[in-house]
Specification:
- With about 1000 residues, the protein is α+β, with helices and mostly antiparallel strands.
- Among the domains are: about 180 residues, no CATH class; about 110 residues, Laminin (Ribbon); about 240 residues, 2-Layer Sandwich (Antithrombin, Chain I, domain 2); about 100 residues, Roll (Alpha-1-antitrypsin, domain 1), CATH 2.30.39.
- It contains 14 helices and 50 strands.
- Strand 35 and strand 36 form a beta hairpin.
- The relative contact order is 0.07.
């Protein structure tokens, strides 16, 4: 795409030069070298990066002088210079919006795939597709998923050269290099592996295990981003597991139920004199079996010979040392690095965050590394070295992308960059040959025997040890081999086994079948020949599932654990679309026609083709489904003759409702907590309210809930929430996790409909719990909350909140972790006065940076407004700073109106600002019953008025007896970490939870919102510490 993009842009420039005389027209200026102007020159160039011609080393202009549009003007389709603001935005593509031009994971070719990482660049003058739209690489336009044209690309190279229209046809893309990165999202995604430790403290970048198995250690504090651990008091996620003696030890066959201490039984204890042991025995704990030791790096019980090496000073253990985009050594600083996603991860020790490995092998602070990797001929820059590479410095003018790589350096004047040596050298010192092929590297002593080719796999060679050549050459990088076309491809791709969890086998077994259906069954298999490869016709090379994986009904290789999740007739487990075949909704949505478009796939059970789920959740033939012939709407919808709103309109109404709800929620909390720092997530409250609305009978209570959601029917709830939750959880670079769970009194049973809706619509699993043991119940729920919030929120519920009347507890969590687009320098943070009145002050840590921010001064609100963006571009922190010391109450009251709030955001424009803002942490407990009643949600708290029905199999009057929220936010130089948890207790009587208030008093407070685009997720007030 880059190649064609540059060629077209150059041709357009030449055309303009040919048709222009030395006498310049209106709004034109005469310049000596038009070819080197990097600004857009035509309306059709607005909305994507403009290629720039590099000036040759000799400094001469590659073209002739001529006329160009003056600053702020570009040529329209008639060749006339007009103000750029009069051109169609984003080149006229109404489905595009100003952005970075990357469209990461938003190409038509990305639909249905797991999201990959993204290059960390933002192109000037670029556009991205609006939400819900994807870039069609064939047409260069942003389109709806169902409008994507079919791709006829046979390879990435073909795709790259087929997008030539994107430069001249108003594309929202800058290039089609997805720049796969694992630096953010993947390192923080939840792991499903279990750990043998009681707790883990791994900081912001750690991954948290989604398993709730028991642990075999009292504590583990691995700093590795790949380590996982689970509290030993965590309960099983299975709804049928109630026996506290059923300790699984996280699936570690080398562990057994015990105290969870492993005293003198860690790998690091081997060879040491036994030390003293703490006299404690953790409930549901595990210890390693005799002869095994706990490896603190992996959290598993292993034999002494299997212990991993302990990590050194400033090192952490990693399960994949060869992945990522960031430099790992001082020598790599200053060089744009490929984002490796290796097929096989190498485990070991790496330098911890902000440390790099020096030449002597030790890990030192990154800022102590020599500049530009110690290359004296380089200087800080963009890392492009356009036209100044050993491979092209003699080629004359070349097109240059207008990008600036993070952590980049360029060669000093007179030097060129040697791609082999990764250093700046004099032109005459360039090494040869230059390796420019994909996945090629230069090797001074390449291996020549055995051949490093796909054809050599499985063959025997008589080589005198590992034969190498003394002549340097271009070779495939590690893990790659040359195919018959001479291209370097991943080794496992040589035999075309490209399915996930598939491997090539020259002689695969045929019995027993390697399928999910065969698990647990007995087969009478014929004997295998002693040398099967020598038996003619016996071996039939093919792709098979790798060990531990089995084929499901749609020929995918999945784990045994996933196979056993879906064992009903005619169903299978997969990671697929948002819609399953369900009898009740089969006419409106199904597996092949799903109005919900998800960026990430959904891991759940599906009915096989031509089958659909009945009311009992069983997959039956579609022609046996029973339909309501009197209505085509889903049960619970309002019906009527009005035309149904499309999904985008429904989601927009929900977001508008959230903005309204957030403004009123914030205002009521501020009134209840004057002059107090508070943080909250009104958005997260909408999820349990929507859960209850689905099972509220039509009436006043039902209307109150729908009005709060700004939705019209139960049908709209079922349509919009799966797509919204999936979209929120699939953001790039910043982390946004949502989790939900239902704890059911073990003496009662949920209806299949409520359990299915909770799982499929809201992602909430159910678990039975004994509320007659309130202390244990509180510990179980608190352990889940602590795990899901990365230990940011603890001890939310207490035993006195539960009683014999408690039927179920709805819990949900929202967690955010994002780094600033431009971080604050901690050295600039100073302790300064913060006014709490006109005469009194307190001391607070005040962060500072000068930069370009979106900023406005609102006369209507009598305040200043500033936006700070997070990496990824979709999340932002908005601060409303009143001009009056005591003015934040007035601002809060005005922005209750969504129109006023959105109008204020519309005022924001990019300005250079000196930004001073306090570093702070706020924790707040909120009685949701009190707040919800003030925003007109009242009837669900009265069992006589709630009209909740269809939740439990036995019919009794239910109502919400208690509802609380706990929220926390950490705001510092790096970014923001925030979490909120809601606990809603449903029973047959009422009880008030204890109220906890955390106070941070100050005078000149400001209001803040944490937004995903314009959808408020968190909000609050900072009033000083």
């Amino acid at each position: 795409m880059f190649k064609m993009f540059f060629l077209i842009a150059i041709a357009a420039n030449v055309f303009l030069l040919v048709s222009t005389t030395e006498t310049c027209g209106e709004n034109e200026v005469y310049v000596d070298c038009p070819d080197t102007v990097c600004e857009p020159q035509k309306c059709s160039e607005l909305g994507f990066p403009v290629p720039c011609l590099a000036i040759p080393v000799n400094g001469t202009c590659p073209g002739d002088p001529g006329c160009i549009c003056e600053t702020g003007y570009v040529r329209n389709e008639c060749g006339i210079c007009i103000p750029s603001k009069d051109c169609p935005s984003c080149g006229g593509d109404e489905n595009a919006t100003a952005g970075c031009g990357v469209n990461c994971n938003k190409h038509c070719s990305d639909i249905g795939k797991e999201p990959g990482g993204c290059i960390q660049v933002c192109y000037p003058n670029a556009c991205d597709c609006k939400d819900g739209y994807y870039l069609d690489d064939n047409t260069g336009k942003c389109v709806l998923p169902n409008q994507c044209t079919k791709s006829n690309h046979n390879s990435q190279e073909t795709s790259s050269s087929s997008n030539s229209t994107s430069t001249s046809s108003s594309s929202a893309s800058s290039n089609n290099n997805n720049g796969k990165s694992t630096s953010s999202t993947s390192s923080l995604s939840q792991s499903s592996s279990s750990s043998i430790s009681k707790s883990s403290t791994s900081g912001k970048s750690s991954s948290t295990s989604s398993s709730s198995s028991n642990a075999a250690s009292s504590s583990s504090s691995s700093g590795s981003s790949s380590s996982s651990s689970v509290s030993s008091s965590s309960s099983s996620s299975s709804s049928n597991t109630n026996n506290s003696n059923n300790v699984s030890c996280g699936g570690d066959e080398n562990a057994k139920p015990g105290c969870g201490v492993n005293c003198n039984r860690h790998c690091k204890d081997i060879g040491k004199k036994p030390g003293a042991c703490i006299l404690v025995c953790y409930e549901n704990g595990c210890d390693c079996k005799p002869g095994y030791y706990l490896d603190d790096n992996t959290g598993k019980c292993v034999l002494p010979s299997q212990c991993t090496l302990p990590c050194g000073v400033n090192e952490v253990y990693s399960n994949c040392t060869n992945a990522g985009c960031e430099p790992k050594t001082c020598a790599e600083t200053g060089i744009p690095l490929p984002c490796d996603q290796p097929d096989e991860c190498l485990k070991g020790c790496i330098c911890k965050s902000n440390y790099l490995r020096a030449d002597n092998g030790t890990c030192i602070p990154r800022d102590q590394c020599p500049a530009c990797g110690g290359d004296p001929n380089a200087q800080p820059g963009c890392g492009v070295n356009c036209g100044r590479l050993c491979s092209n410095y003699n080629d004359g003018p070349v097109p240059c992308p207008l990008i600036c790589n993070i952590n980049g350096c360029d060669c000093r004047e007179g030097y060129v960059f040697d791609e082999n040596l990764k250093k700046c050298v004099l032109p005459e010192d360039c090494s040869k040959p230059i390796c420019t092929g994909p996945n090629e590297v230069y090797d001074d002593h390449p291996i020549i025997c055995p051949p490093q080719t796909c054809d050599s796999i499985g063959k025997s060679y008589s080589c005198p040890s590992r034969l190498t050549s003394s002549k340097g050459a271009c070779v495939c990088r590690k893990g790659y081999l040359r195919n018959e076309d001479g291209k370097c491809i991943p080794k496992e791709d040589c035999h075309k086994c490209l399915g996930q969890n598939e491997v090539y086998d020259p002689c695969p077994p045929i019995c027993p079948p390697q399928t999910c259906d065969a698990i647990g069954k007995s087969y009478s298999c014929p004997s295998i020949p002693t040398n099967p490869t020598e038996v003619p016709g016996y071996c039939k090379p093919a792709c098979r599932c790798k060990p531990g994986y089995y084929r499901n009904l749609i020929d995918q290789c999945i784990s045994k654990k996933d196979c056993l999740k879906c064992t009903g007739p005619h169903e299978y487990f997969s990671c697929g679309g948002a819609c399953d075949n369900v009898c009740a909704t089969i006419k409106k949505q199904n597996q092949t026609h799903c109005p919900i478009i998800n960026i990430t796939c959904n891991r759940k059970c599906y009915c096989e083709a031509d089958y659909a789920r009945n009311v009992n959740g069983t997959c039956i033939p579609i022609d046996e489904c029973e339909y309501d012939c009197t209505s085509t709407s889903i049960e619970g919808s309002t019906g009527g003759d009005d035309e149904e709103d499309d999904d985008e309109e429904v989601q927009n109404r929900l977001i508008q409702g959230n903005t309204d709800f957030t403004g009123n929620f914030l205002y009521e909390v501020i009134k209840k907590n004057p002059l107090t720092s508070v943080v909250m997530s009104p958005f997260s409250v909408l999820i349990p309210l929507a859960q209850l609305a689905l099972y509220t009978e039509p009436g006043n209570s039902y209307d109150q809930l729908l009005n709060t959601l700004n939705l019209k029917s139960k049908d709209e709830i079922r349509r919009v929430f799966p797509a919204l939750i999936s979209s929120l959880k699939s953001q790039e670079e910043a982390i946004l996790d949502l989790a939900a769970k239902i704890y059911v009194n073990k003496q009662y049973q949920l209806t299949d409909n409520f359990e299915n809706d909770s799982r499929d619509v809201f992602g909430a699993e159910a678990e039975n719990i004994d509320f007659s043991k309130p202390d244990q119940a509180a510990d179980t729920i608190n352990a889940w909350i602590e795990k899901e919030t990365r230990e940011l929120i603890k001890n939310v519920v207490s035993a006195d909140m539960f009683s014999a009347y408690t039927r179920l507890v709805l819990t949900n969590v929202i967690y955010f972790l994002g780094n600033w687009q431009k971080q604050f320098n901690p050295n600039d943070t100073k302790t300064e006065d913060f006014h709490i009145s006109n005469t009194d002050t307190v001391q607070v840590p005040l962060m500072y940076q000068k930069g370009v921010f979106r900023y406005a001064e609102s006369k209507d609100l009598n305040c200043k407004i500033l936006e700070i963006t997070y990496k990824g571009g979709n999340f932002s922190y908005i601060a409303f700073l009143p001009n009056d010391v005591d003015g934040y109450n007035i601002v809060a009251e005005k922005i209750r109106d969504p129109d006023v709030f959105n109008t204020a955001l519309d005022l924001l424009k990019y300005e250079t600002c000196y930004l001073y803002i306090p570093r702070h942490e706020i924790t707040t407990g909120i009685d949701l019953v009190d707040i919800l009643q003030k925003v007109n949600v009242t009837d669900i708290f009265d069992t006589k008025k709630a009209d909740l029905s269809g939740i439990l199999t036995n019919n009794e009057e239910l109502g919400v007896s208690a509802a609380i929220q706990r929220a926390n936010i950490k705001f510092d130089e790096t970014g923001t970490e925030a979490a909120a948890v809601n606990v809603i207790i449903v029973g047959t009587t009422s009880a008030s939870p204890p109220e906890t208030v955390y106070t941070f008093r100050a005078d000149h407070p400001f209001i803040f919102y944490l937004l995903l685009e314009r959808n408020p997720l968190f909000c609050g007030v900072y009033a000083g510490n």
